[in-house]
Design a protein that fits this description.
By secondary structure, this protein is α+β, with helices and mostly antiparallel strands. The chain folds into two domains: 9-46; 54-131, Ubiquitin-like (UB roll), CATH 3.10.20. It contains four helices and seven strands; from the N terminus they run H-E-H-E-E-H-H-E-E-E-E. The chain has helices spanning 9-45, 62-67, 83-91, 95-100; strands at residues 54-59, 71-75, 81-82, 106-110, 113-115, 120-121, 126-131. Strands 2-1-7-4-5 form a five-stranded mixed β-sheet. A hairpin with a 2-residue loop joins strand 4 (106-110) and strand 5 (113-115). 12% of the residues are buried.
């Protein structure tokens, strides 16, 4: 029967320190080698609206309540589009969307400025859509 040799506390601590340093070195080396890949991988998820040709649409008031949405992102054509074209794309989703986004009741803003249906939309713009109708009207 073999007895275990006594081990000093300092040798245990030095082994732990060496192991921690090795882990730190390995983590740093791995991070350094993956950094070019990390940039391209994460840029897909966190790219700006401009790089994806998207606009942010925010539904407010009755429109938000009726459509059960508060906001969304929508891809627009590279050549751009007008507010009327964007609203027509939204109206094609369902007849309830067409009813709620009727020209007689809808008010829109582009980048917090009142907008007419003929105004052009820039890539990366923030579009707010309101309704002139009250929440209590059918």
């Amino acid at each position: 029967m073999k007895l275990a040799m006594p081990v000093s506390l300092s040798s245990i601590l030095s082994r732990r320190r060496a192991r921690r340093q090795l882990n730190r070195y390995a983590d740093f080396t791995l991070m350094w080698k993956l950094s070019p890949m990390k940039k391209s991988f994460f840029s897909r998820f966190f790219a700006t609206l401009e790089s994806k040709h998207q606009v942010e649409i925010i539904y407010c008031g009755r429109t938000s309540e009726f459509l059960l949405m508060t906001s969304e992102r929508m891809v627009i054509p590279e050549e751009g589009c007008t507010l009327e074209q964007l609203l027509n794309r939204l109206r094609l989703r369902h007849e309830s969307w067409a009813y709620e986004l009727d020209d007689r009741y809808v008010i829109c803003e582009i980048n917090r400025k009142h907008a007419m249906p003929t105004d052009d939309i820039e890539v990366g713009a923030e579009i707010a859509i309101f309704s002139r109708k009250s929440i209590f009207e059918p």
